[in-house]
Amino acid sequence: MKITEHLKSAKDTLFSIEILPPLKGKSIHSIFDGIDPLMEFKPAFVDVTYHREEYIYKKRDGGYLEKVSIRKRPGTVGICAAIMNKYDVEAVPHIICGGFTREETENALIDLQFLGIDNVLALRGDSIKTESQFVPEPGGHNYAIDLVKQIKDMNSGLYLDDEMKDASPTDFCMGIAGYPEKHFEAPNLYSDMKWLKAKVDAGADYIVTQMFFDNKKYFEFVDLCRKNDINVPIITRIKNIKLSFTTHCFA
Distance of alpha carbon 159 from its chain centroid, rounded? Predict the structure, then answer.
């Protein structure tokens, strides 16, 4: 079931959660142990974050240093499948630009479609620790709007191989990020709003806010969205410190 369908059919305020994949080598049960106590609240869906690679330097013979890519938290797609199977609840994987070529993104989305996952959250992602600013993968996307456009194309049956005939379209419901207190790279909130509207116009179905620490900023953000003809649903994102989970509340 798509997130937008949950919103349309909701008779009361809904609740969802966001989780981090466990560190490499940890069991899936570390995820289940955290989710189990929350299922009594009947979350509408579970977001699963994705964390791109990091780089370390390993000393080799001769004193040379080799730059090695590692992923500390793999498994977003597998965790989504496990959550859907165990709890019969929608899972929403985060799809990011960083670390992926367009072809790798397309293949990941095809895998998600095969698993029956209908919802994705499209994000640019953060820069890696060794970079002062975001650097896209060669052949990858630089901005979230480009990722949104690729997903929208696949929903229309358009794949990277333009010689494909009668390709089956995907049917993803796309979420994007919004920033009530402004994205830290944006010069001002109005510039941020321009790019947010561009992502919605490109095909995004709903917005999930970044965490905010002043409720007034959130209400001002919603008003500004509506004034700029951004009329998709806006879901609030709240950090629950005690549980180390992120919760989403929306009506």
Answer: 21
